[in-house]
Structure formats: C-alpha cells, structure tokens
C-alpha cells in the first residue's frame, strides 16, 4: 500500500510535465478551467478546431491514445502511466471531449474486429484527431433494450455484396461533427433479437445519411437524430460475422463503461471552494454544521470514487482485468453530481435560479444541474447499472426476459408496429 | 502507486479468517449477547496467541513488530464476525496511545501485557449525552489522583487500565489509571449492543499517572482517535461486507411469487446499493490504511474520510440486510440484528457520524482540498 510514485513513475511524471510545459495551449488555460458540464468553456476560439489542434500535437509527440499500440497511432503506455498523464494534463483534457466516443468506444471495437488493412486506415487518424467518430446504436424504440433495434440492413440485389440500410438512430452524440460512425443494424428479424444483428462502420457523408440536431433539456444540442435512407455500405465495412453484431457491440459497451465511468468528477472540489468563499451569517459556509455534514457526504463519495479507480489501476498493473465492478463509477458520480448541483443552488438562495456569468463560478452549478440528468441515462441508466452490479458482481438471477426466445418480428414494441 | 495489500498481508487475512471461522461462529457472539460474560475470554487469548494483538507493537515491548497495515487486515476480519472481544479499546486506542505518547515506564508496564492478552484497556474520554467537547470534561486530575465519572465507556467493565481525559487546573490532560487501584467503581449500563459492554466508571481519589505533557490531553486524544478511526473503519467495513453477503445469500435462497427474491429488481437494487456503499468505504479505508501505516501528513483527513464512509456503509448494509430478509430479519433467531446492533454501536463510538463529518470539513478547510479531490 503506497500512494507515492515509484522512481520510474516520478521520472515519467517529470517527462510529462516538461512536455506539457513546453507544448500545452496555455492561452486557453483560463477558459478551459471554466469548463462546465456540457460546455468546454471556449469562447475565444472555435472549440472543434482547438480540440483537433491539441490532439494532433499530442499525437505527433506520442501522447495520443496512450492505451493503444504504437502501430495504430497510440502511445503503448501502462495503466499507471495513463493515470499520471491524465493527472498532469489537467484542464487541457477538456479538449479531448470531442474524441471520447471515438477513442473510448469505437476505436477499441475497430481494433478488435476489423481486418488489418482497415485498422491501418482507420485508427491512426482517429488517434490524431483528424477523424471524428460517433456511435450509432440507440433508436427511438431501443435504448436500454439495445438489441430491440429496428434499423434494417439488407443485401443489395445487384450482386455487389453491398448492404442497403434503412431506419433511424437517435441520441447520437457528436454525429454533426463526425467523419465515421459505428452502426449496428438488424439483418434478420426472423430469429430472436440478439441473434439477428450485424455491425458496420460507415462514412457519415455517405449518400442517404441525414443528421438532425436535437435540442436538449439543457438547451444545448450535442446529440442528434440520424436517418438512413437507402444508404449503401460495402460488405468489407462489416465488423464481425453477419448475425454476430450483438457480440461486437459488447466490446463497445464494455469499453464505454470503462471510459465514461473511470475518473469521473462529482464536482466536489468546486462546491468546496464555493463554500469556502461563501458566507453564512458572517462566517464561512464551511463553519456551519449543516453545511459540513452535507459536504462531508459529498467528499467521501468523491474520494471513494477516486480511490476505487486507483484500486482498479493497481489491479490492472498486476495483470488482473477490471470487471463489471467499474459500473459504480458513473452510477455514483451521476447521482452525486445532480444532488450536489441542487445543494449548491440551495446555498445560493433565491439567486440560485439565475444562470449567467455573474452566478458563482460562472454558473457552473446551474449548468451542472441542467446537464446531470443526462449522466444518469447515457451509456446505461442507473437502473441498468444496478442490474449489472446485482447480476454480474453479486451473482443474482437475471431479469425475466419474456422476449428471449421469440423471433424479433413477433416482439411487441412501444408505439410502432411490428417489424 | 499501489493501493492494495501485499500477498503476505492477504495470507495473514486468510489465516485470521480461518481462525475466526472456527473460534468465533455466530453462536460465540450470541453467548455474549445472551449470557453473563462481557467478552469472549478464550477467543481473546487465542488472538493473543496468534500474535494479532501485538501485530503493531514493536518487539522490544513484547509485540510482533509487523505494522499497522497488518492490524487493518485483522480489524476487518474481527468486524466481519462481530468478534466480542475488547480489541478496539485495548489495542487500537490503549496500545496506540501508549506507543504514541506514553513514557518508557508506562510502555514497559502495559504493552507486553496487552500483546500477551493479559491486560485489557478502555478509553475513558466521554462524559454524558451530547457531542464530546473539551468544555464538557468535569473529571479532575490533581497530579496524583483522578476523581469523577465517565460514561458510557466501552469495555470498562472488564478493563485492567483506563486512559482517562481529565481536567488538570484549567487544562486537559490524559491519564493512565490502573483499575485495580483504590476508589474505582463500575456500574454496568444497558446498551444497544451488549456484545460490547458499556459501563459508567467512577473514580474517587484513584491513583493515576499523566500520559504526555500537562495540558496536552485533548490534542493527544484527538490524534489517537484519528488512528483508531481507521482501524474501527476496517471493522465497520468487514461488518458491511458480511451483511451484504448475508443479504445476497438470502435473496438467492428465498422464493416468493414463484421466483428467487433476488430476481426482483427492487431487491436486486437494494443489494447493488449496498455493494456500492461497501466499495466506496473499502477504497476510502485503504487510503486511511496507507496514511496510518506511513503516518502521512494527510492522516487527519484520511481518518475522517475512512470513518465517515465506513460508518455510512455499515449502517446502510446492516439495515438493508434486515429489509432483504423480511420478517425473518427481525427475529432474534436470525443474525441480522447482531449486525444492526454493532453497526449502530460502532457509528457512535469515538465520536458520532456528524462529529466526524464536521471534523472532515474543518480539516479540509484548514488544509487543502486536493487531498480529497
Ligand atoms: C446525453 C446523451 C448522449 C447519448 N449519446 C448516445 C450516443 O452517442 N450513441 C448512442 O447510441 N446512444 C446515445 N445515448 C442514448 C443512451 O444510450 C440511451 O438513452 C440509454 O441507453 C437509455 O435508453 P432510452 O433513452 O431509450 O431509455 P429507456 O430504455 O426507454 O428507459 C426508460 C426508463 O426505463 C428504465 N428501464 C429500461 N429498461 C429497464 C430494465 N431492464 N430494468 C429497469 N429499468 C429499465 C430506464 O432506466 C429508464 O429509467 C445518449 C443519451 C444521452 C442522454
């Protein structure tokens, strides 16, 4: 049990610091520090351009995708080195948000399922931020129940071997900025739902793809509807066998939980700072016993997540594989964030209702309040995560699945007619 | 960075777990709950023989000279089985206090006996209802003897020595009292957890020696309680984990509406939340273990963090274990109430949850928030 860097770790940290010191976009630091939920804080520059520029610089120096092999543009670094990097990268990490889905989910899926030629074509520009990816999974009728999706892929009847796609995806984050998409489709409605799925990747500028932004509850427009109207995909852009799409999607989903859940902040340091600066009856809010109680509860959640992450890394560095227990990261952070934001506004009193630059910390807590409901839904809702913990960690029986052995086309779905 | 116990420490855990499985089944805990004995003397001697009481005591004082990480491992196992023995009072508080602040003579007199299981201690700080504060101390020390009362005192009924917080002039000092001396009376108090007996201790001119300097009592007591908070946190963690296991096992076994109750999401999600609180507590306790074993500057914050988190986890798991068990969980015959009792008793020992919450934020305000960020 040791918290300190080993000599090699300290050496690596020094190397990272030296490089960041010489290369980080320092002129953006103040703005990035104001980043809050759903915004990276940039006003002086185009956020997408700034993100791509920083990613390119990192890639050229070997600091991009530290968990990927070098031949695909990664850094081939150990788990511990990745942690040290992210501790040191600090506010500049906000710029990587644009690439989270590509680097965290699509990349690992391509790496596991694509052929060598495609890996060499797709992965390096993804690592270096030249190409952006999105994940085309959820549909209006299938979110948690992902395998209930209805977007159809049918073999073209011209003998080309191409696939013709028709249907609709929804909640697709970043589709409007993406060059490529990872797409799961139904190829066989006559078999039970998990068995008739097939995974593809495609160019987002393929003819017949239409991206329509959705205005979110917090006013931003990060996610989209994506429509497919006779979109043609060559067969060599298929990942895994026909009918094996569910298995391929599990690679994506497992990586999703790892990449969203680990190292999530609950916003506690910001709340604590706010309470240090704020007064109640002429004294710092942190002197009030009620405030202290609340803060302490947020504090131990934040630190519990932090050290849970460190335990996972300790296990990784001993060659053990992290399991479904990582589901707790997003589960705890999402709910804590929402409660914490509500509390921060409560402390602001009636002025808590106002959301502008003059609000404490530039309106960070108001932004957090309005974004946090999404955290409890995206990438697996709280309920789905609890199911995973209950079933895969604690070994409890699975939910009763009435649709398990039924051909997909006979399963009732909400709203729409059967496939 | 490595946030895990070593292979040797894990071996020690397995060894202690095997020993306790044999020597501290639930029947042994019930024997104390329902009988006249205040602790399990045979089990306590067994632990001494195994070398765990002296795990963190240096060899020159009759200990085993391992360290505090090993003591954390032991504490978790004792907590799992609710061992009805005065280890917290004697070892985490008594021996720690003597090791940190005692004179050579005091160490020589008591540490070898503690390690051998021949002397039991108690931590006599509290006086009456309400949060413990320096201004509440009324018991006095005149340089040679102490007079006054302390209550409630865990394990005070079986202790050979007490560490007592006393008023010396206008300051507070910590004193060591041999309870075989004159003018000591003990009154047994009923408690929510009879497997850790509570008494009122009264002194009338009882001989005592000071621990540390005059006026340093509150300061030393606070330091010792920080160290003990981490060890007690591990006991709480062990209890939380066991309560979760009991709930999980019952959810697999009990059928209702033609299904195992663990297949109902309402039940599954209760158990998932128990797992989450136990996992957060485990991680916070490991941080505390590191701080304790290395006497890191972060120790006060790490101690309060581990303590708050472990109290949350044990109370949460113990109460929901009863819920998962339904009516059976509320019977005397099932063990659920043993965990419920202990979780609430431990939540109140060496300062209640709200006291530690307050301490955590006070310390973070004084230091830097990075430690917990
Ligand atoms: C901000 C944001 C970004 C997103 N980005 C993407 C993206 O880039 N790509 C993409 O493919 N998808 C994306 N999603 C979609 C996301 O994965 C789904 O919203 C999510 O999986 C939930 O599905 P749903 O919205 O259909 O809700 P539903 O599945 O309809 O759930 C409704 C309610 O029922 C509960 N529920 C459903 N099934 C169960 C069950 N078995 N047991 C218990 N409770 C259950 C849910 O917990 C929820 O409370 C995004 C979502 C959000 C909010």
Summarize this, please?
The complex is a heterodimer of chains A (419) and B (373). Chain A has 419 residues and is α+β, with helices and mostly antiparallel strands.
Would you give an account of this structure?
The complex is a heterodimer of chains A (419) and B (373). Helix content of chain A is 42%, strand content 13%. A four-stranded mixed sheet of chain A has the order 1-4-5-8. In chain A, helix 10 packs antiparallel against helix 12 (382-393). By secondary structure, chain A is an alpha+beta fold. Chain A has twelve helices and ten strands. Chain B is α+β, with helices and mostly antiparallel strands and 373 residues long. In chain B, 53% of the residues lie in helices and 15% in strands. The longest helix of chain B is centred in the middle third of the chain and has 37 residues, at 217-253. The mean pLDDT of chain B is 96. Chain B is built from eleven helices and nine strands. Classes of the chains: A alpha+beta (419), B alpha+beta (373). Chains A and B meet through helix 8, helix 9, helix 10 and helix 12 of A and helix 7, strand 9, helix 8, helix 9 and helix 11 of B. Flavin-adenine dinucleotide binds next to strand 1, strand 3 and helix 12 of chain A.
């Amino acid at each position: 049990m040791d918290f300190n860097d080993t000599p090699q770790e300290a050496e690596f940290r020094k190397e990272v610091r030296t490089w960041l010191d010489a290369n980080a976009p320092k002129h953006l630091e103040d703005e990035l520090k104001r980043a809050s939920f759903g915004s990276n804080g940039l006003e002086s520059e185009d956020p997408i351009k700034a993100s791509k520029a920083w990613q390119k610089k990192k890639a050229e120096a070997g600091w991009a995708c530290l968990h990927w092999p070098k031949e695909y543009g990664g850094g081939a670094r150990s788990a511990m080195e990745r942690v040290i990097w992210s501790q040191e990268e600090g506010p500049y990490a906000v710029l990587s948000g644009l690439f989270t889905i590509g680097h965290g989910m699509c990349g690992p899926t391509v790496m596991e399922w694509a052929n060598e030629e495609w890996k060499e074509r797709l992965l390096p520009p993804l690592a270096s931020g030249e190409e952006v990816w999105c994940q085309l999974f959820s549909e209006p009728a299938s979110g948690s129940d992902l395998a209930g999706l209805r977007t159809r892929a049918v073999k073209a009847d011209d003998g080309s071997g191409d696939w013709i796609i028709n249907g609709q995806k929804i909640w697709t984050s970043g589709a409007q900025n993406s060059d490529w998409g990872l797409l799961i489709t139904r190829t066989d409605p006559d078999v039970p739902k998990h068995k008739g799925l097939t995974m593809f990747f495609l160019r987002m500028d393929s003819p017949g793809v239409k991206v329509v932004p959705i205005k979110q509850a917090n006013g931003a427009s990060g996610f989209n509807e994506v429509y497919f109207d006779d979109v043609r995909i060559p067969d060599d852009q298929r990942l895994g066998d026909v009918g094996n799409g569910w298995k391929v999607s599990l690679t994506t989903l497992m990586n999703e939980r790892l990449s969203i859940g680990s190292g999530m902040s609950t916003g506690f340091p910001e709340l604590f700072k706010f309470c240090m600066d704020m007064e109640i009856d002429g004294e710092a809010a942190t002197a009030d016993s009620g405030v202290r109680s609340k803060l302490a509860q947020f504090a131990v959640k934040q630190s519990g997540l932090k050290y849970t992450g460190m335990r996972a890394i300790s296990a990784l560095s001993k060659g053990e594989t992290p399991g479904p227990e990582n589901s707790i990261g997003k589960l705890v952070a999402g709910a804590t964030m929402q409660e914490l934001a509500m509390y921060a506004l409560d402390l602001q009193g009636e002025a808590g209702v106002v959301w502008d630059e003059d609000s404490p910390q530039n309106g960070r807590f108001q932004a957090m309040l309005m974004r946090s409901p999404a955290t409890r839904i995206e990438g697996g809702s709280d309920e789905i995560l609890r199911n995973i913990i209950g079933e895969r960690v604690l070994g409890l029986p699975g939910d009763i699945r009435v649709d398990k052995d039924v051909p997909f086309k006979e399963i009732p779905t909400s709203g729409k007619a059967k496939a | 960075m490595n946030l895990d116990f070593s292979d040797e420490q894990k071996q020690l855990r397995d060894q202690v777990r095997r020993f306790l499985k044999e020597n501290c089944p639930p029947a042994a805990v019930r024997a104390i709950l329902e009988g006249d004995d205040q602790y399990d003397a045979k089990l306590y001697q067994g632990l001494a023989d195994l070398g765990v009481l002296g795990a963190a005591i240096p060899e020159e004082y009759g200990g085993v000279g391992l360290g505090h990480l090993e003591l954390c491992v032991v504490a978790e196992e004792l907590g799992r089985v609710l061992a009805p023995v005065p280890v917290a009072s004697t070892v985490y508080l008594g021996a720690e206090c003597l090791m940190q602040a005692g004179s050579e003579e005091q160490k020589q007199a008591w540490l070898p006996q503690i390690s051998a299981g021949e002397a039991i201690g108690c931590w006599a700080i509290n006086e009456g209802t309400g949060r413990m504060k320096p201004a509440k101390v009324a018991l006095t020390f005149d340089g040679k003897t102490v007079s006054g009362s302390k209550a409630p005192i865990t394990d005070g009924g079986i202790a050979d020595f007490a560490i007592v917080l006393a008023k010396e002039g206008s300051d507070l000092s910590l004193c060591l009292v041999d309870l075989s001396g004159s003018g000591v009376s003990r009154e047994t108090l009923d408690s929510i957890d009879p497997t850790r007996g509570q008494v009122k201790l009264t002194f009338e001119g009882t001989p005592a020696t000071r621990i540390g300097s005059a006026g340093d009592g509150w300061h030393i007591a606070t330091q010792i309680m920080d160290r003990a908070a981490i060890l007690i946190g591990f006991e709480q963690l062990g209890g939380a984990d066991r309560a979760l296991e009991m709930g999980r096992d019952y959810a697999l076994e009990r059928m209702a509406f033609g299904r195992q109750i663990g297949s109902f999401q309402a039940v599954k999600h209760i158990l998932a939340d128990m797992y989450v609180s136990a996992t957060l507590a485990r991680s916070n306790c490991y941080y505390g273990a590191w701080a304790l074993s290395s006497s890191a500057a972060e120790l006060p914050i790490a101690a309060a963090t581990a303590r708050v988190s472990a109290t949350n986890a044990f109370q949460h798991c113990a109460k929901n274990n009863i819920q998962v068990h339904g009516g059976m969980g509320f019977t005397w015959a099932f063990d659920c109430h043993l965990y419920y009792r202990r979780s609430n008793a431990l939540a109140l020992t060496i300062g209640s949850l709200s006291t530690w919450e307050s301490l955590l934020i006070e310390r973070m305000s004084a230091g830097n928030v990075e430690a917990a960020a």
